[in-house]
Amino acid sequence: MMMRNILPLIFLLLLVSSCSGEENKSVYSITVDDLIKENDYILAENPNNVTALQFRSLIFFNNGMYPEAINASEQCLRVDPSSGLAWHIIGSSWGSLNQPEKAAEAFKNVVALNPDDPVQYNIQGVALSRTGKYQEAIQVFNKAISLDPRYAAAWNNLGVTYYGMSDVNRAIESFARAISIKPDEPEYYSNKGFALLNKQDHGGALHVSRIARNMDMTCVPSWFVSGEALFSQRNWKEAFYSFDGGFNALSNSDLWYYQGSKATQITKDLNPMDAYYSAIASNVRFTGLWDRTTVIQYKIKRYQNTLDLYDQIIAITPDYGDGWKKKGYCAIKINRIESARDAYKRAMEDYPNDPEVLSSYGYAAGMLGDYLQAMNYINKAIELEPSNPRSYLFQGLVHSYYGQREDSIASFNKGLSYDPHNPEIFGALADDLFKNGDTLGGIINSIRAIIAF
Questions:
Q1: Which of 6, 175, 214, 351 is the most buried (most CB within 10 A)?
Q2: Which pTM value belongs to this model?
Q3: All domains of the chain, ordered by start, with CATH?
């Protein structure tokens, strides 16, 4: 039904664009200020022009000017209190300003305007879920499902909400329902993967993450699900490549659910508004014609549809800082030292005072030739947590790398005083004792490394 309504409008859009001729070449030089000035011109002729006010809201929203978008939407609502688009923009703007409570209240008004529309209940549920009002969100999602039992997005979002409540079994059941209804949505599989990880079902998590990636290699969460599963299985190499794949996909993705589940965006894909730009570029003045310009109405509808789409699906967002940590850990395990240094450097942005991150970064820096930086970070880690054996392991390894074996042996022994069964430290100590000519000590610690005692 929607396509039958939109296709004629697309034709009109193409017709208007083709009629503008050579003048349309200037479309891409139009700035936000140009758009606002043109909008001011229209509103000066008719301050109550709802279409112009809706466009003003979208101009501000799509350029990240959220307070201005809210003000324009509120002005629109004073003229037309039934404008669902205005309430949508207000809710999404408050979400982008990290005000989820106000976002939820705005989406509640959308539902009031559309009491029989399951999509609007779903969007309200998304806002409630993001505020942590899980019980209310569950009620709203169930309302959406009662209106449309095959509404896959609502089932998925219900699962994410149960996941947030640590009700993992119900989360898995909800994700399974979403998948059964719409089996070609990769985010449903990655969400189920996170729930399976929570149940320590690493094999199951790997299975669904691979299905998701086979559908869409840019599905960021699926890479992290497989990375976490492989990390738990101590498959360092494959885990490293999974985290690496996730971060590579993340760097190439602008979809809102990869930026964090609390962020709400309409879209970046349709920015800027081409119909509006074309009209300005061809010097069309809409005085007296604005409300009869079907392509403008089409463009608003197109944005409305896109907003609904982007607000429908919640994807469980990975902990990216923890992902960098685990990628660095795996990189050390497979001797990818430069990758380890880079990963831990990124992890420090989220964990600036984490002793494991600091000492691991220091170790990587030392192995790459920067002894002073290595000791600076490792010593800071020890200062923050004097009883962390891994910091002493890395301190000893760096000392050993630079030929300071007496210092390295002292560091290893210090680490063993805090963790007397650490096989990595026993192995490193054994290597240095052999190098120092202490064959018996080397043999004893080699055995202890094997039996971890």
A1: 175
A2: 0.74
A3: 1-98+270-317 (1.25.40), 340-451 (1.25.40.10)
